[in-house]
Amino acid sequence: MGALWGGLTGALLIWMGAKFFSVTHERPVLWLANGAYIGMAVGAFLSYFYRDDREIEDNAARKGQSPKYGRDAHWLEPFVFGALAYLLAFLPASPGLALYVFVVGAFSGVFAAGASHFSPDRWKSSRLMLLVILAAGSLLGMLSSLLFRQFAGQFRGRYWVMGAIAGFLTYLATFLRGRSLARRQARA
């Protein structure tokens, strides 16, 4: 149900904000679809964490303790990592393009969040897995950069190279943060 409501909310937010950003006027249906798609992912994550949080709270209440959410309290961070990594890598020259880059970066952060949250903790200590995850993040960043083809002339470099850098940075920040949280939880 969360994916459905997230999709509707995402599309509604794009529809409401479209009047403020001219870049959305060129392909409004694609923007609405993008908002719905991102909203569905966020809604699914919210539903998962809502159920997970209630279970943590119920278990703590049965034991007479305060709930401890652990790493789950940090699940939104990869969205920010993605948005900032994409803004840093692409350095957009206009507010409309910055919004576009921000949204695609946050979307990339959704995948990084899933990869981090649902991967085994032993992977977070492996240098080989770090390299695999960074390679996958770079590839996904390069693929996501295809969304910027129409803006190629507005960037200081090749959009696909900047996309690979953005994906690399998104997955690096998410991986390092996940490893730090996993180690902290293991010590506790």
Structural commentary:
The protein is mostly helical. The chain has two domains: 1-66, no CATH class; 78-188, no CATH class. Helices cover 72% and strands 0% of the residues. The chain has helices spanning 2-17, 28-63, 77-90, 95-117, 127-144, 159-187. It is flat and about 60 Å long. It starts with a helix and ends with a helix.
Write the layout of secondary structure elements.
Blueprint: H1 2-17, H2 28-63, H3 77-90, H4 95-117, H5 127-144, H6 159-187
Helix pairs in contact: 1-2, 3-4, 3-6, 4-6, 5-6
Question: What's this entry about, in short?
Answer:
This protein is mainly alpha-helical and 188 residues long.
Regions with little confidence, pLDDT below 50 for 5+ residues: none
Largest sheet report: none
Shape verdict: flat
Our Rg estimate from Cα atoms comes to 18 Å
SSE pattern: HHHHHH
What is the tally of beta strands?
0
Task: State mean pLDDT (0 to 100 scale).
Answer: 88
How many structurally independent domains? 2
Query: What distance lies between the first and last C-alpha atoms, to the nearest angstrom?
Result: 34 Å
Please, what is the oligomeric state?
single chain
> What is the percent of helical residues?
over 70%
- Structural class label: mainly alpha
Report strand %: under 5%
Figure out the total of helices.
Answer: 6
